[in-house]
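WARN no homologs supplied; continuing
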Amino acid sequence: MEEYQIDPVRNKKELKEFIMLPWKIYKHDPFWVSPLIIDQKEMFSKEKHPFHKHSEVEPFICRKDGEPVGRVVAILNRNHNNFHNERTAFFGFYESYNDPEACGFLINHVKNWAKERGMERIRGPMNFSTNEECGLLIEGFNLSPVIMMTYNPKYYIDLFESNGLKKIKELFAWRIDKSLKFPDKWTRIVETLSHKEKIKIRSINMKDFKNELERINIIYNDAWSNNWGFVPMTDEEFNYLAKKLKQIVDPRLVFIAEVEDEPAGFSLALPDVNVALKKINGRLLPFGILKLMRELKKVKKIRVITLGVRQKFRFLGIDSVFYYKTITDGIKIGYEEAEMSWVLEDNVVMNRLLEKLGGQIYKKYAIYEKEI
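OK structure emitted
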């Protein structure tokens, strides 16, 4: 008789076991992109990752007859619950073989963990929140994920749903390539705005990075505040993420809009470094860094990771300029395609806009929930 048990991760040896499990699960999957091991370790370091300062995180491993067959992280995001007035626990970093019993043990363990803390539901996958990787891939399994997007086997859908998790929200990934032709109306809007003295749209100034971050932070916590699942980032979280992205950002594709010198909007597109990460198997040493730098020069795809305008400056057409400049400047630089992700299924304005541009929904992700 097979015996399952759930063990909390308590030491470095167990954390390594937890982190390395996906390398076994995806051993023969050509589309999986291995994360950097050093980054994974940092995610679970209370000293290094600022999320731990306001929230509770506990990783678990599921073993069958002593061998790891699955993993999950239980998350109590206090900032989310305070902001939304909810009692929700989250789960993330889920991985397992196609084993319904193992999945059941993991999900039920998170549910019981959440119940002990007075929560009413569990929701996920979130790694750790909507400010980082989230969602279960439900369509588009024949392509590798782009930077900061998730990937999983198709059988995860059945595992989740057979264990009582229900889909509550879909997230879309749109694809646009260099064959795009902007409508004349769109071009006229961009030209009109570019001649308005009070509106300025420019690339980020990396030499003034600290002050630029302050401007972007003002925009972020206003522009996205009404979005489903939004959680304001603490200053530490914001600076932590900015420091990480600074290493890979192409400043020519980061735009800030100002109206009469007041921060109004922000757009960020990143080169898809996952193309390069596939080549180094999660390891920077001893030769991974050199290989990574070489492969980064071959990247021809970007991800438009975030694009927003503060509420009082909406309907000025700033978002149209962001799209126009990102795509046209990106083509000039040498990028050939872009993924716009993720976009909520019920974000009617943005989905219509991307459809008019000739974009195509080529991947879908889902957030699941289970009442306690």
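The chain has twelve helices and 15 strands.
OK
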